[in-house]
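Dear colleagues,

As part of the handover before I leave the project, I'm documenting each prediction I ran so the next person doesn't have to rerun anything. This entry is a single chain, and its sequence is reproduced below.
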Amino acid sequence: MKIPKSILIDPDGNGTYGIFAVAVSMIAFAYSTIFGQTLILAYYAVWLPLLFVDYRRFTWKLSSAWLPMLFAAYVCLSVFWSQAAGISARAAVQYSSHVLCAYVAARTISVRTLVVGSLIGIFFVLLYSLKVGAYALDTIDGTYNFVGAFSSKNQVGFFASLGIFFCLVFLVFYRRNWLAFFWTAPVILLSLYLLAIAHSATSVAALPGGVGIVALLTMSKVLSRRYRRVLFVIGAGALVVGMAAALNLGLLDFVLGIFGKDSTLTGRTYLWEQGWAAAQQRPLLGYGYAAYWVQGLADPERLWAEFYISTRSGFHFHNTYIEALVELGFIGVTMLVLVLLRAFYGHVSKVVFGDWSADSVILAGSMGLLLIRSFVEVEILNPYIIGSFLMFFSFFKLTRLPVARARRVPVAFETLKTETDEVAYAPRFGPATAFDRS
């Protein structure tokens, strides 16, 4: 039996497979550290075989993906100057293959499929965490919070905030009937509950930012392209001026106080100082990808001890740019920032300066959410994490795939079949006349 390619790689016809693949990916991103290689292999199995279904789909306009590919290559090259070459080599292969999976996903599924699959996957992720029901001490702020099956309240909060975000955008842009409100209700209620008991200030603060970007870009639909541009320029300028004025007036301390934090972000600023000091030792190339937090090295051992990390693993500087600067140096962090900003601004500019698109609105909102979180979390620098998958997926979605269009036939002519199965066109009145199709 021959399986049609469309049910696997056509974004308009592979909804069922795409939803399944995304749901599997979400579960792998959440719990691969618990269930091990099984989930990682399942993640690879749903994406990488699609490369062999129709290679032309993945080689078309391949040059448009040069920036993420260059960054992945640089990550691999860091093995040559890494202080832990073996660890860097393994992590670099994982990260590069992760980028490849995101590329395959972007070329084969629609944004709607991504949203629906994410909702299903996130629901099972949060349901399992609710079943585990674990609480743990946050070594940063000294409080006990819900972590479920994760090791961090911020990871629970991230999945919960994404569940809320994707529910809202699905109901606004993609629902086809009123049944959508019923099947998304359990997802959004579970997400709200776990977000509340996780007490993740990062997730609570970033979610309104992502939703706000979606709301603003959605409202711009009623404006003409010309007025969208004017609104964008004025709004961007007002945002920069307003943020500078608010910070000078003490808004940051006020917002942090709402979440029970102080101006040091309960120890994060100390970590940033330590990270910046470490980066000064190797400013250009860094220590090597994933080669800083290595057991046996003096500085990481000291920081693990200071923050009571008994497992001596799974820790970072709580800032994407400092983490990238330490591991990959100035060159690496510049590439990473360019990928993130290109993914964000690319979709914003599509809405503001081009034809309005719901897909670009959603991806711009998700990139805005990641951009906000990147200042206090590290979620786009590691493999098998939902943040890095979304970033690369959004970047690769900036390239439009060719759409097969039916040949237009003049209204005054009808299609006939000749004895040689060649197409001929004849006027509705009068003798048949063959036309060259070229």
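The CA atoms of residues 91 and 102 lie 17 Å apart. Strands lie at 135-137, 144-146, 413-417, 423-427.

All the best with the project,
I.
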